Amino acid sequence: MKTLECIMLVDDDADTNFYNKIVLEQTDATNEIVVFENGKDALMYLEKGNNKVDLILLDINMPIMNGWQFLEHYEKLDENKKATTIVVMLTSSINIDDKLKAERLKSIKKFINKPIIPETINEILALV
User: Fold this and answer.
1) Reported pTM
2) What is the pLDDT of residues 39-58, one digit of tens each?
3) 118 contact partners, CB below 8 Å, separation of at least 6
4) Which of 41, 94, 103, 112 is positioned for an S-S bond with 36, CB 3.0–4.6 A?
5) Is the peptide bond between 118 and the residue preceding it cis, with omega within 30 degrees of 0?
6) Cα–Cα distances in angstroms (integers) from residue 118 to residues 2, 5, 26, 45, 125, in the given order
7) Distance (Å, rounded) from C-alpha 106 to C-alpha 109?
8) Is the CB of residue 50 less than 8 Å from the CB of residue 2?
9) What is the DSSP letter of 45?
10) What is the spatial distance between Cα 76 and Cα 126, in angstroms, rounded to a whole number?
């Protein structure tokens, strides 16, 4: 299995982030995991160019800046700040409109429902 340099988790639920980190660590999917509880902080991290992020697992419903707002700003970032980042919408939303909206956005490579499992990580890593 491929190991990524850095995966970003963007979700306001601390328990979900904790669980996702455990699954990512158990599957050796990445060398580093950065966690943000809203899109604004995640976007600021990317804008600073702190580290190349290979994969973003993004929730939809969050305070301050939700997943859709994050993507609106993310798509305007300089290409060197986005690099080869893959964005996967990882959400508890079962709203078909959310799924259809995600399918229309070029930044979103996959739309999956929580919780993440090792098999899903393998599917995601195949996209990178």
Assistant:
1) 0.91
2) 999 999 998 876 789 999 99
3) 23, 26, 27
4) 41
5) no
6) 13, 18, 8, 27, 11
7) 7
8) no
9) H
10) 26
Classify 14 as helix, strand or coil.
Answer: helix
Residue 1 scores a pLDDT above 80: no
Q: Above 90 in pLDDT, residue 12?
A: yes
Tokens of 114: 């929580």
Secondary structure of 59-125 as H, E, C letters: CCCCCCCCHHHHHHHHCCCCHHHHCCCEEEEEECCCCHHHHHHHHHCCCEEEEEECCCCHHHHHHHH
Bridge partners of 35? 9
Which residue, chain included where needed, has tokens 């190349």? 52
Distance (Å, rounded) from C-alpha 77 to C-alpha 47?
Answer: 7
Residue 8 has pLDDT above 70, yes or no: yes
Q: Domains in the chain, ordered, with CATH?
A: 4-127 (3.40.50.2300)
Which three-class secondary structure state does DSSP give residue 56? Answer: strand
CB atoms within 10 A of CB 55: 26
